[in-house]
Amino acid sequence: MPTADSQERVLSQVEAATEEQIDFTQRLVRLPTVNPPGRHYRDGARLIGDQLQSLGFEVDYLSPDPSEHPSEFPRVNVVGLRQGPPEGTTVHLNGHFDVVPPGDGWTRDPFSGLVENGRLHGRGSADMKGGLAAAIFAAAALLRSGVRLDGSLEVSGTVDEESGGFAGVAWLAEQGRLTSERVDHVIIPEPFGVDRICTGHRGVYWFKVESHGEIGHGSMPFLGVNAIENLGPVLEAFRTRLQPKLAERRTAMPVVPPEARRATLNINAILGGQAGMEPQTPCVADHCEVIFDRRFLPEEGFENTREEIESLLRQVEEEGPQRRYTLTDLMVVHPVQAPPDSALTRALQNAILEVVETPATLVASPGTYDQKHVTRIGGIESCVAYGPGELELAHQPDESCSVDDLVTSTKVMALALLELVGGD
Ligand SMILES: [Zn+2]
After folding, report:
1. Residue 317 parent element (H or E)
2. How far is the CA of 113 from the centre of ligand 1 (A)?
3. Which of 333, 362, 391 finishes a domain?
4. Which residue of 87, 103, 159, 236 is most buried, as measured by CB atoms within 10 A?
C-alpha cells in the first residue's frame, strides 16, 4: 500500500514535468499520423520510443509482415518495458498514435499543436495523443520519484486503431506480446474524461445488403429489374419496422452518452447502378448495395441480432415481385466488459478520488476500441479505458484538449500505477 509520502513524491514529479509533457504532446500532435492511409508511423513510433528510452525503458519496434501493407506506409508499433521483479504485477499502458483525417470545418491548422486559452489544439489532442503522452509521463513520474517498484511497467504506442487495430494491438496480442501470460492489467487512455473509467463497449455488426436486379436497356426499364428501386422497401422496412424496436431496447451497461444505451442502426454507405462511372450508359441498375453499422447490446447477443435482420429481408422479399436480397457479414465485434471490481478499477477509483476529489463514474463506450483485442485475443480481462479529453470532440473539426485535464489524468494514472506496482 503506497504511503502518503510516496504519493506526494510521485505527484510532485508530475507537476515538475508539466512543461516537458506539454511539449512532448505538441510534438506528437504535429506529426500527421493520418489513417487512412497510415502516414508517418515510423516517425511516430520513433518519437515515442526515444522518450521511453530516455526514461530507462527497454524499447522494441515491432512491425507486422510488410507484404500486407503498402510499402510506403509501413506499420510500426513501439513497446517499452521497464522490468521489475519477475514475480511482480505488470501494468501495460497502451495508446494508439494514428489519427483520423482532419476533414473539413477547421478554423485553425489541424496539426498546429498550439496551446491557447488552456487548451492544446489539433487532430489527436483528445483521441488520443494527449492520453498517450499522459500515460508516458505517469510512468515517468513513478520512475523519477525513486519509489521502489515491486512490479513492471510497459508502455506501447500502436497503430491502426482507427481502422480496426489489426496491425496494432490485435497483432501484438497475436504475437504473444500483449497477453495474460505477460501482463496483468491494461489501461488504454482513450478520452473519457478525468473522472470516468470505461469498462467496455456494446457489440458491433457491420453488414452488407445487396439487392440483385436484371440489367436491361434504360429506355425499356420494364424489361429489366431495377436493383436500386428494390432496395427502397428494405430501407423503409428498416426505418419503420426495425428502428422503433431498437429504440426500445436499453442495455444495463452504463453507456455514454445516454442515447447510446439503446441498440442502434446506421446506414454507412450506398452504391448502386453506375454510381461514379463516367460516362453513364443507359442501363437498368442490376446491382445495389448498402453497408449498415448495427450496434447491439450484450442482452441482444449477436445471433439474435443477425437473425432479426435476415428474417426482415426475407419478409420484404416476399412482399413484392422480383425482389432478391443477400446479406453478408463484414465485421462482428462482440461486447466486452471488464470486471467492475478488479484491482485495476479500484486503483483508478482511489486515484480519482484523491486527485479529482470526486467519486469516479464507471461508463461504457458508445464505440469500440482496442480493449476488444486485449481481452479477446490477449485474454486479459483486467483492461479499462481511462484518459483525458472529451469523447464528443473525438474525430470532430477543431479537436482540442484541456491542458489541466492532461495533467490531472497523468496524476491519476501515476497514483493508480503506484498502487498497483509500487513498493512502500
Ligand atoms: Zn482513440
Report:
1. helix 302-318
2. 17
3. 333
4. 159
